[in-house]
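Notes, p. 3: input format for complexes.
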Amino acid sequence: MLRPALHIPPTVALTLPDLVEHARLALRSVVEYGEGLINPTVRLGITGLSRAGKTVFITALVHGLMRNGRFPVFEALSEGRVARARLAPQPDDAVPRFDYESHVQALVADRVWPESTRQISELRVVIEYQSRSGAMRELVLDMVDYPGEWLLDLPLLSKSFEVWSAETLEMASRTPRARLAKPWLSHLATLDAPGPADEGVAIDAARVFAEYLSACRNERYAMSLLPPGRFLMPGDLAGSPALTFAPLKVAHDATPPGGSLWAMMRRRYEAYKDVVVRPFFRDHFARLDRQIVLIDALAAFNAGPEAVSELEGAFQSLLDCFEIGRRTFLSSLLRPRSDRILFAATKADHLHHTNHDRLEAILRRMVERAIARADVAGAAVDVIALAAVRATREAEVRRGGATLPCIVGVPAPGEQSGSGNRKGSPPRYPVRQAGQGREGAFDGMTEVAVFPGELPGDPDALFAPGVAPFRGLAAASAEEADFRFVRFRPPPLESTGDGAPALPHIRLDRALQFLIGDRLT
Ligand code: GDP
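Output follows (521 residues plus guanosine-5'-diphosphate):
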């Protein structure tokens, strides 16, 4: 039972509370290890930034497992050794249950995308299978769905308020953030950090700062690094003091005067870490055996090169969270670490299959540092391009003597088509049929063929320094952008020939094989 270790950077000395925390985690780890010997259990974390595809992934995975989906690469199932998979009551009473039934109803019966992840939730599936030696066994799979924004908060644990303020200000000076940060920075200029603390001033500052974060998250810009994560998803902490603070322009090595706005903000920042970040780490993250990190790389391509480079930065932060190869003395002695991490680019069905390997290669290029470090620690890390639900099929469309590899699907109602073509770039949406309203919005009923554009064969072409490799929505209109992905409606079930009709997917079985295949031998 391998688990990630508590991240304490080597430069930070272990304090007594840290040691107590380690000891508690170690004790629980031993207890859970013992339980795992009796009931073999895999605790799988499913994370990714908002709208990366977590809800759809879990729903499709469980649906496929319970209904013998078409999973040829998932060996236990394809070898006919899975007797059945069933839902069971989850182990954690205080964590909301993943609402599988409603999500399946939406996805399969209503053919609309389910409601996205807003908070942590959990679902237990018990897989009854025959081992290769012929014995009947059970594997308990606990799936924990949580926002990636919470994960990206973990680096805050090792940062003071002053350091976090300085870093946040530095990031706000980059493109395209600088433009979006203007209202917040003008407001910040009016604040008197050493002046007296004032609740009204703190509330205003937190609001304007949260508006800036939210503007960065907009699909047009698709920025990834936006801590504190709860500012965008406050849940039941909305309006609490722990969420009512904002960065200040202060020296990173100075101490605030007593009773000042600065002291107030600093205290609340620490409260955020105590109330939000540490409990998340302790109660959830530290207990995961395996992880899948879902990434909407296509949304970043859609937005532009800045979003792609920020996504790369997010991988760096994720590395810090997983603590790969940087275990402390105590944790390495007492607490094992997460042993499998899968980075998955989702929604690959937005591309023709000729581009799936390219998407995977680009993702690999983006996480290669993560992979290198994980290899050092012996953890298995892999990347994959997948679609948990394949909403499109493929077609070759002839246009002006050329054959275009297109995808065909039903665009979600209201989805706008990108019609124009940038001079010199390949046409993006040359094929359109009935079902598109006068304003260029689709009606959600009719199939259309779309040429989504081609990803570069050489992943380095996207990352060459000093070159603007492609145009995204952050810098151009939808008509001029090089990649623009349409949101399709979920597909009907497809018949698998032998079993019950199943949801079509791309490489979901490969992900499953990597994540739990070895535990079903
Ligand atoms: P979450 O915020 O990570 O839980 O994201 P969701 O799972 O709710 O996905 C967000 C949106 O992405 C959905 O509403 C769909 O529009 C789209 N999506 C997610 N997974 C897929 C997929 O496999 N294929 C397609 N075509 N769209 C997907």
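The longest strand covers residues 136-147.
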